[in-house]
Amino acid sequence: MGAELEQLEIIADYINTHDRRMRYEGDPGVEILEGVNDLRSWLLEYGFIHDLDSVTEVDLTLARELRSSLRAAIPYNPHDPKDDDFQTLNRIAGQFRFFYRFGEMSDVMESVEEQGKGGLARLLILVFRLRENNLWSRLRVCTAADCQWVFVDRSRPGTGKWCSMKACGNRAKNKTYRERAKSMG
What we know:
Pfam families: ABATE (PF07336), zf-CGNR (PF11706)
InterPro entries: ABATE, ABATE_dom_sf, Znf_CGNR
Strand content: 5-15%
Protein name: Zinc finger CGNR domain-containing protein
Number of domains: 1
Number of strands: 6
Organism: Paenibacillus glucanolyticus
Helix content: 40-55%
Mean pLDDT: 88
């Protein structure tokens, strides 16, 4: 399961390209994918596109929509409206074309798309495989309202709440302790 969790980390990193950790009250977060070059760099870094592939503004818009729909599809996400029937994700996935190659040892789904859109399609294939292997539930959104960082829950029972016990978890437990102590007088 180690390699699959590393693949899930790629998805978490992608969703975190809109960093929603709050630095001040009302902070809208930081958009990492500000332009096509940012998206191109991210897709190149993870091997979803080749050096000569280009990325367009249309790809960038699609990437941001895909990112939002993936975030809404995370099962343990207290911060975003649920897309229970996956309408948005299915609508976005419907914009891609795939083909299947069957083999004796394994079957492969590949993208028909090229360039930036092909990279996004390969990312979507990775999401499909992770969901198919029942690993999607290991993707979590930190329950701290001022964090909301997407992380991979590597705990044995798979019930993690915070991206970091040292930061968000400690703050939450201290807050609960202070509230309890205050109410007791």
